[in-house]
Amino acid sequence: MSVDRFRFVSPGVFINEIDQSQIPRARALRPGPAIIGRTAHGPAMVPTTVSSFDEFVQTFGNPIPGGGSGDVWRDGNQAAPTYAAFAAQAYLANNAPVTMVRLLGDESPTPDGSNLSKAGWIYPEVSGDAQAIAASDAAGGPYGLFVVVSGSAATVEKAQLAAVFYLSSSACISLVGNAAGSSTAVAFNAQLVDHSVAAGAKELKIRITNTAGTVQVESTFNFDKTSSRYIRKVFNTNPQLVNADITSTANRELYFLGETFDRNINDLVGATTAKRGVILGLSGSSNGAQLKTGNFRRTYQIPQTPPIIAQDPGPSGSFNINASSRELFSIVARDEAEWAQNNLKIAFSDIQQSRSPSYDPYGSFTLQVRRMDDTDNNPVVLEEYNNLSINPNSTNYIARRIGDQHSSWDSTNKKFRYYGEYESQSRYIRVSMNDDVAQGRAGKDWLPFGFKGIPKWKGFNYYSGSATFSVLSLTGASAPVAAGANNLIAAGSGSIMSASTYNDTGGPMAVGAALANNPAYTGSFQFPSLPLRLSSSDGGLALGTNAYFGLHTTISRLSLVPDQTIRDLVRARPPAFQRLDPGATEPQERGPGFSLDNLILNGNQDAVYHSGSNHGYIEASAHTHGGARKAGNSITARSSSYEAVLDLDYNRFVVPMAGGFDGFDIGEAEPFNNARALGEEGTSNPSENAYAMLYTAKKGVDIVSDADQVDINLMVAPGITVRGLTDHLISACEARADTLGIIDLEGGYQSSAENNGTFESRRGEVSDTVSDVKARALNNSYGACYYPWVQIRDTLTGQRLWVPPSVVALGTYASSARRSELWFAPAGFNRGGLSNGAAGVPVTNVVDRLTSKQRDQLYERNINPIATFPAEGIVVFGQKTLQATPSALDRVNVRRLLIFLKKQISRISTRILFDPNIQVTWDRFLGQVEPLLRSVKSRYGLAEFRVILDNTTTTPDLVDRNIMYAKVLLKPTRAIEFIALDFVVTRTGASFDD
Questions:
Q1: Is residue 126 part of a domain?
Q2: Is residue 780 part of a domain?
Q3: What does the pLDDT look like over 614-634, one tens digit per residue?
Q4: What domain range is 416 assigned to?
Q5: Residues 759, 650: one domain?
Q6: Model-level pTM?
Q7: Are residues 735 and 816 in the same domain?
Q8: Three-state secondary structure along 413-440?
């Protein structure tokens, strides 16, 4: 009822608009294609059906035309086209539906141990052991720039990680300036350096050289996004430029800039200390091998929030968000990875205790899915669920309203296994309930009050007041500690720092002897945490109670500009570390969480969050992870009631999702390139265990291979040409026996994502493609292929791009069926005219203009030419299947007809299953099948037909075996492909009647 949408508190008139004039979506009469490949975002590795291009864009994003560069690390890969998305656009322009299988990087459950058998990326790339990086600091790897944010030389200082540089094995990095507190010029890593710039400039200078000492880049930079010296403008942020396979020597880089933590630095750095920093290696070493923090070799990961926690029930002095709080549930992205954590945040509002405890002791709350880049001044709510409860018996139970069901792929049985009780109702999220809450063992007054922290690297302390080098070990056992008032080492505060004690469990730091011998620094090294809203007045809100506490997503407390560094703070961890729940012996810990229990009121009656940290970042403090409640001065501590803060209407907070990972190689423009990721072209049967992306693509085919689970009649994986996948695709279509596969071929055009050759060198030849198909000896009527690649115009951006022929072929299948019938040949000037719009997308050119002889060579090998004619333009000029044996089924129109009829008659048959095997049932079957075939005949699909179902087919013996047996005899209509005309020239006196 619409009345349930309102929240009634005080009397008033409540108005809602309900649009019931919408035209219901027509049910699709026919199945459509399964398209397997990359999209901008959307549900991954699950079949998802859409019925219009608008719905496709809402679900999977706009097609990406490629050619993008810029800040690839931060903004994502826009370099290669998403062919699958353009194929969907081509089909949906004239027909529907489409079943999309979006691919993310997965890997075989039994990889062979090589680099390529693991999804994800590792930097720098090495051969052999996929878990190793390089042998020494000089041989590349991740390096952290730490900026001194407080203190001064020879006193207690604090250094904050500001940025991470990833170096190839041919590069070295250093800060340029004077040794801290000295006039001696240096250019070192592991050396505290002052940069000589004007006071208050907050700038440093970095030099990157090759191993021969030749300077590649040397730039002064800062963390001001409006400055021309902003760090992400000055340094390379595109990992693809380091890839020699796709980047020319002239444009190649030896490094890329990864994470930067702009807000942390801008919030914490003082004007007089901003010029001091140090660069340290971010990988420990053991037995001569650097390890782990540059290793992201792992399958794709779904992000989720940290556990949402309830209010604190105990004495305020014992409060600890990450240790003693009560977990309720987590919010998990629904089949989505990095896009979800980069673009979505989860908000809780209207958190209310029960108003009638004797009637219903459970409180209520609202959950919103909001855009990450919105503000509390102007929230953008994508989904909203009101009046939720943690009561498992309520119709408003959060898991029931949003859904908690999820699936896992069983690679052995090639099927999905489903978990959870309630189907997903949200486009974006699902709920993962704490078991105690789901079983009704939670307190009835428990409400969402905050969240635990997401992982951060542990900080460590460094003491230079003595010749004795001192840190705490990973397990808590301390190394030798020198006496002195400036020593910041305290029990439990440190992490591994000494290279000699590093081990294979992974870790963030290996600090060399150079820093240990530098007398200019005594203090702590700290790693960034999520910024939290500090005051209800931040951002200039007119009404403080509209403030969402918790995660703060702007570049500063008072700004309304979105903070893109959030993306670096919520990234997935390397595979050696747990994603959201660090173990006690790991070099990471939970960062600062949040709880409404920590809100206090200031003199202006504004709510202020106090967690025992500065600017929302955890530092050494008596109230770390405790804050105002632990100190006894929060609203709930002073009132001894959690209700006090809710009664003041401070009842909302925001939490991020974290840990998502796409599983792609960030150095590749096209993660599914044929040259490296899928196995080299020409390989007869590359092993999916050796190529993670080949396993992923095959899994995409397997996901739609069961005809009982997914209803399709076409299948395509645009742009993928390796035999291991194309053979697998048409074999799956043949096994289904109701689907035609359209494949792309080796030997033709190669995109710029395949190699760094020129356009001319990547064109390919007709002869190469013909030879490839000949060598494969294909003989399968459930497959078809086309040649060559074509150029289309992206209707959204106007950009032109080259796409594989399967994209436009799929479009002609849709337009041909719409204009006539699906058993008409999708070829020729009437139904295959690409220049006239038959493809569903604008086609402007072909990569290879075919001669008549070349068309003959292609057609002889069952490759359908895409030809160019002076008057008619670009045309699909063939409709052969890949069946080599001459028969009616060697043509696409006949195969499509048979697929259609088998599906339709199968559906009729299912409606008489388990009925009596007698004449009445047989007549009912004939009464439905024969009109169907007459209709197809009247629409030129059949020349003749006959259905036999009587005692001659279903004999008494078959009846005794519970079998009904019918014969359907068909004479399909053939398409005209050859026209022979005789023009006879006669004498003047001849008669035509003769």
A1: no
A2: yes
A3: 433 333 332 334 688 888 889
A4: 311-454+530-656
A5: no
A6: 0.89
A7: yes
A8: CCEEEEECCCCCCCCCEEEEECHHHHCC
